[in-house]
Amino acid sequence: MMWKRLIQWGLAAAALALVVLGMTQLNVRENPQPAVKQSAKQDYQRTATYSPAGGRIDRHLYSQKQLRALTAITHGNQYRGNTSLDAVTTRHVYQLDGRNLANIVGADGVLQLYNESHFMTTRMVKDAAAFWNQVAGTTVVEVVSRPDRSDEIIHDGKSSRSVLGGQTYNGRGILFYPGNWRIQNLSQRNQQNWKEAALIHEIGHAFGIPHLGGGPLGTNASKAGVQTVELMAAWSVGRVGSPPENEQGVKSTSMDAATLALAGLSWQRSRRLAGWVLNSNRVVLYDNGRVTTTPKTN
Question: Distance (Å, rounded) from C-alpha 276 to C-alpha 279?
Fold first, then answer.
């Protein structure tokens, strides 16, 4: 959804956490929203926001034992994961605190994105697609050359509020506000990685992935001002409190893979994704325009 208000860390250091663009306006909602009735004309979203009736998942793709293993990962701890996802195992529903988690993935099971943003370049969008495809172990997002072939469009807007952008779920696509990028005193590499983390994060919300910062809403970390390595939580680099590991770039974790696996069970065309997380470890890394995948080492 949204990158939260730019706040100060340390003395004068500006940083980003997550803010949400709600169904029709900026508000305090911080995760994928339930499906809503949309008008026939959607300027930036051609595929209607979707969630299955009652949040029911497809139970044919993973065994109950495998679902337990996936939710054991996504349960996390105080500042990692999302305890609402436990319901995938206990009630076989994909919900956030009792509300269906929505996505923008079309009937073909692949998120089709078209880019009009200058702030997030098409190269960056392609890198974000490569990042998620490597996490999934298959193609789950593509960058298309025409807007009429897309599920939604990434574009820039103007806002008087201190938000960087987000996934709208209401026909306005993925919006970014370049004028609100106020990160300074960082290397070009760290600025690039932070922007890419924001883009990867918002595409994650388009899949239906909620925040993964701990607790039933996944927002414990952001509310406590705790910066993490989780790109679907409060991610930062080069600031007081930023994890040193983030200096290496934007890394996927088993949390991202397990949550994507659960999200895919709630799509219009349900898919078995990131199944590798059940028996192996890997890390997808974005660093300054390069995406690589390596086995995880302890």
Answer: 6
In one-letter notation, the amino acid at residue 259 is T
DSSP code at position 35: P
Predicted model pTM: 0.88
Cα–Cα distance measured from residue 23 to residue 267, given in angstroms and rounded to the nearest whole number: 20
Please name the amino acid found at residue 115.
N
Domain that holds residue 145: 7-295
| Residue 65 neighbours by CB distance under 10 Å | 10
pLDDT at residue 295 in the model: 85
Q: Which of 282, 285, 266 is nearest to 55 (CA)?
A: 266
Instruction: Note whether residue 279 is domain-resident.
Output: yes
User: Any idea what the CATH number is for the domain that residue 238 is in?
Assistant: 3.40.390.10
Examine residue 231 and state whether it is found in any structural domain, yes or no. yes
- Selection from 222, 270, 274, 272 nearest residue 252 by Cα: 274
What domain count does the chain have?
1
pLDDT tens sequence across 27-60: 223 455 444 444 334 589 999 999 999 999 999 9
- Which CB contacts under 8 angstroms, 24+ apart, belong to 275-279? 275/62, 275/137, 276/137, 277/70, 277/73, 278/66, 278/69, 278/70
